[in-house]
Sequence to fold (590 residues):
Amino acid sequence: MSDAFAWLYSDVVKDHFMNPKNVSSPGDSFEADATGMVGNVKCGDQMMFLIKVKDDIIVDVRWKTYGCASAIASTSMLSEVIKGLHIRDAYNIKPEDIAKRLGGLPDNKIHCSVLGDKALRAAIDDYLAKTGREGLYRNEGARIICSCLNISDRDIEDAVKHGARDWASLQERTKIGTVCGGCKADAEVLLHEYVHIFGDE
Amino acid sequence: MPDKNVYLDYNATTPLRPEVAEAMKLDLDVYANASSMHEAGRRARARVEEARAQVAALVGIHSDPERIIFTSGGSESNNTVFAIMFHLGRKSGRKGIVTTAIEHPCVLNAALWLKEEGFPVTFLGVDEYGMVNMDEFRSAVGQDTLLVSVMAANNEIGTIQDIAAMAEYAHAQGAYFHTDATQAVGKIDVDVLAWKVDYLTMSCHKLYGPKGVGALYLKKGAPLEPLIRGGHQEHGFRAGTYNNIGILGFGIAARLARSELVLYGTRMLQLRSKLRDGIIATIPKVRVNGHPSNVLPNTLNVSFPGAEGEAILLYLDLAGIRVSTGSACASGSLDPSHVLMATGVGPELAHGSIRFSLGRDTTEADIDYVLDVLPKAIARLRSMSTIEA
Fold:
C-alpha cells in the first residue's frame, strides 16, 4: 500500500468521523430495548450499542464509543445501514460489508471496525434473551474453523466470552484442534482478536 | 481552513532550515569522494572536517573533533554502541547491560538482541515523571555491568535524566556509559565533557538539518568496533563514502543550533507554558505527563481521559494541526505507549495521550489556534464516549 492512511481521508470516512450518525448524546432520551457493550479501555477501545426494536425490526439505534477514528466511522456507517433491518439480517452483517461501504479499510484497521459489529450482535443477543429466544442466531453465518470437530468462530467467541484466554483454556472448553491440529494457526488469530474484544483483565 | 498547517511534531522530525537548505544547495557541487587524494577530494574532505568541528562544538568539544564519527543517523549510532558491547562482552565475559524501559525502540531492540545473545539485560523502571529511580539504578549497576545506556531526554514526554550522576556511578563500577541524546541535542545544553559519557548518539534531522545523517561521540580510549565494515573512512570505524552534502548540512544546522540555544530554549518554554496553561484552563480533567521541570522546552505530553488518542489526532489533523499520540491504534500494535505505561499512568491515559512538540516555526498564533480547536475536539469525543472523563 502506497499510502497507509489514505483511506482515513476519503470523503465518506471523513464525514462519518466528523459527523457521526446516531451517536448517543448526554441529553438523549433514547429508550433502548436492548444494549450491547464490548471491548475495554485497557485495549484502547470500547463500544456500546443501544437498539429499539419493533416486530423484530430495528427501528432506531444509538451508540457510543471510546475508540479510534475507524471505529467511529465504521460504527456510524453500520448504525445507518441497520435501521429498518430485521434483527436477523442485522446480526449477519459482516464487518467487511461495512468496510466496503467506507471504501475499504486497511488490514490493521479491520479490527477497529469489528468492534461496532460485535457490539451490535451483543445488543441483538440481549434482545433475543429478553424476548425468550436466547442464542437464536448464534450459529448463523458461523465459519467452521476446526473441521475435525465442527467448531466454528462463534464457538471460539463464546469460549472467550466465558473465560478462555489462551490456547490451553480454549482447548479445555471446546476441544478444538485436539484431532489433527491443523486449525491452530487460524484459531489463534481469532482467539487473540476475541480476547482483545471481550477480555476484560 | 484547508490550507492550515500547524506542525507540532518536531520531535518526530524537523523541516530543513532555510539557511541549511541554502548552504546545501550551494554545496551541491562538492561531489568528490572525501577520501580521494586529489584536490577535489581534499576540498570535500576539508568541508567534512569543518562540519565535524561544528557538530563537536554543539556537544561541548572544542579541541578534538575527531571524537565525532559520522553515521547515517541515531539508529545506526545506537546500534553501533550495542555492537561494540557484543564483541567486548564476548571477549571479556563481563556482559551486564543496564538500560531503561523508556528508551527509543532502537535501543530497546538492540538491548533485546544482546539479551537473546545471552547478555543479562536490565530495563530500569521510571517514576511517575519518567525519571530513572536512582536507588534502583545503583542496585542494578555493579561489577558485572558492561554498559549503561540511558537516554538524555525522552522523545515522548520530554523528561531529562541526570546523565552526569548516572555516568559517574557507572564509571565507578567500571562500566561504560552511553546516552542516546537524539532528542536533547539542539534543544538543551549538551556537554559530553561535563556529563563524562563514553558514547553519545546524535541525529541531524531533529535539529533542522537533513535526514540520513547522524553522529556518534566517543570518548578518547572508549572501545570501538565498526558496525559497517568496509573502507577506512572514520579511521576504519564506519565504512562508506562520505555523505558530503548531508554532513555539510549537519555542520551548519549544528552551528546554528548552538548559537541560538538559549534563545530557542526561552522561546520554546514560553510557548509550551502558554499551551499547557491554556489546555488546563479550557479542558477539564487533563493530565500533563512528564517531569514538571526537568523537561525539554518544546515537548508537552497531555492525556485526555475519555477521548481516544488516534481519534484526537485525526480530529486535529483535519483542522490542520499535526501531533502524535501514544494510542495503540495509531501505532498499529495493540499496546499503548511503552513510555507512558512505564510511568504508571495506566492504559486509559496512555491511549488518550497527545504529544505536542513545538519548534522554531511555532508561533503564538499557532498555539491560540490549537487552544481553539482542541477543547472542541475533546468535548466532542468525550460526549460520545463510553468512558467517563
